[in-house]
TrEMBL record:
<dbReference type="InterPro" id="IPR029035">
    <property type="entry name" value="DHS-like_NAD/FAD-binding_dom"/>
</dbReference>
<dbReference type="InterPro" id="IPR003000">
    <property type="entry name" value="Sirtuin"/>
</dbReference>
<keyword id="KW-0862">Zinc</keyword>
<comment type="function">
    <text>NAD-dependent lysine deacetylase and desuccinylase that specifically removes acetyl and succinyl groups on target proteins. Modulates the activities of several proteins which are inactive in their acylated form.</text>
</comment>
<protein>
    <recommendedName>
        <fullName>NAD-dependent protein deacylase</fullName>
        <ecNumber>2.3.1.286</ecNumber>
    </recommendedName>
</protein>
<feature type="binding site">
    <location>
        <position position="120"/>
    </location>
    <ligand>
        <name>Zn(2+)</name>
    </ligand>
</feature>
<feature type="binding site">
    <location>
        <position position="136"/>
    </location>
    <ligand>
        <name>Zn(2+)</name>
    </ligand>
</feature>
<keyword id="KW-0520">NAD</keyword>
<feature type="binding site">
    <location>
        <position position="56"/>
    </location>
    <ligand>
        <name>substrate</name>
    </ligand>
</feature>
<feature type="binding site">
    <location>
        <begin position="91"/>
        <end position="94"/>
    </location>
    <ligand>
        <name>NAD(+)</name>
    </ligand>
</feature>
<feature type="binding site">
    <location>
        <position position="59"/>
    </location>
    <ligand>
        <name>substrate</name>
    </ligand>
</feature>
<dbReference type="GO" id="GO:0005737">
    <property type="term" value="C:cytoplasm"/>
</dbReference>
<dbReference type="GO" id="GO:0036054">
    <property type="term" value="F:protein-malonyllysine demalonylase activity"/>
</dbReference>
<feature type="binding site">
    <location>
        <begin position="12"/>
        <end position="31"/>
    </location>
    <ligand>
        <name>NAD(+)</name>
    </ligand>
</feature>
<feature type="binding site">
    <location>
        <position position="139"/>
    </location>
    <ligand>
        <name>Zn(2+)</name>
    </ligand>
</feature>
<dbReference type="GO" id="GO:0036055">
    <property type="term" value="F:protein-succinyllysine desuccinylase activity"/>
</dbReference>
<dbReference type="InterPro" id="IPR050134">
    <property type="entry name" value="NAD-dep_sirtuin_deacylases"/>
</dbReference>
Length: 235
């Protein structure tokens, strides 16, 4: 009985691009029109809470106009069918993986559909606008902020992610530029522990040379093809 490979999948903005959500560093990317320093740092939040809260209110509202694409659906199908260990680690803050049906999923950079209390640390589902000074249901403080990991803050679930990488036999990176750590270093960590590493991306990324294999193309084509091949092995 061959043991089934443990799989860790990292996703970035590129997997949501075909759903119409702009990536960060492409032409017309989200950061254009906004300097990162103006909307995604603790200093920006302290300096101009209205601007920061409004930036994420707009992105949260835009979720109503987008749908998961074939790549999200293929990963959800793999998650449901794979009898071995599997974890999807997303850098994305949209909810498209969940809406496609993914369950074994962690958001390392936070989520638009969640609010974080800066006073007590409670996180709670949140829909609609989140004006500065909104009250926390857990502690009552008027301290709710977007539940987004800002530059310079610690990503979420790193212990679980590092444990999964240490046990991975297969690490697949989908739609990320490899520009931001710690996610950009996951391929080296997985390879150090003996995983086979595969990149599925539209363009070569900053980390492409670190992968055993890179396939270039749109996620909506490459991911369903890759999942179909893997599930074929289960037959
Ligand atoms: N299919 C596959 N890959 C795509 C597609 C597509 N249709 N469209 C774009 N890509 C690729 C691009 O080639 C690029 O390598 O997706 C990647 C997007 O890179 P970024 O815009 O840098 O997004 P990401 O890698 O997720 O950024 C990482 O940086 O700004 C922070 O916190 C933010 O989580 C984000 C992190």
């Amino acid at each position: 009985m061959t043991t089934l490979p443990n799989i860790v999948i990292l996703t970035g903005a590129g997997i949501s691009a075909e759903s119409g959500i702009a990536t960060f560093r492409g032409p017309g990317g989200l950061w254009e029109g906004h300097r990162v320093e103006d909307v995604c740092t603790p200093e920006a939040l302290a300096r101009d809470p209205e601007l920061v809260h409004r930036f994420y209110d707009l992105r949260r509202a835009a979720l109503a106009d987008v749908e998961p694409n074939a790549a999200h659906r293929a990963l959800a199908k793999l998650d449901a069918a794979w009898p071995g260990e599997l974890l999807i680690v997303t850098q994305n803050v949209d909810d498209l993986h969940e809406r496609a049906g993914a369950r074994r999923l962690v958001h390392m950079h936070g989520e638009l559909v969640s609010a974080l209390c800066a006073a007590c640390g409670a996180r709670a589902r949140h829909a609609g606008a989140l004006p500065p000074g909104s009250a926390c249901a857990a502690c009552g403080a008027a301290a709710l902020r977007p539940d987004i990991v800002f530059f310079g803050e610690m990503p979420y679930r790193m212990e679980r992610i590092e444990a999964a990488l240490a046990a991975a036999d297969l690490f697949v990176s989908i739609g990320t530029s490899g520009a931001v750590y710690p996610a950009a270093g996951f391929v080296q960590l997985a390879a150090h522990y003996g995983a086979h590493t595969l990149e599925l991306n539209l363009d070569p990324s900053a980390g492409s040379a670190a992968f055993d294999e890179s396939r270039l193309g749109p996620a909506g084509v490459l991911v369903p093809e890759w999942v179909a091949g893997l599930l074929q092995e289960l037959q």
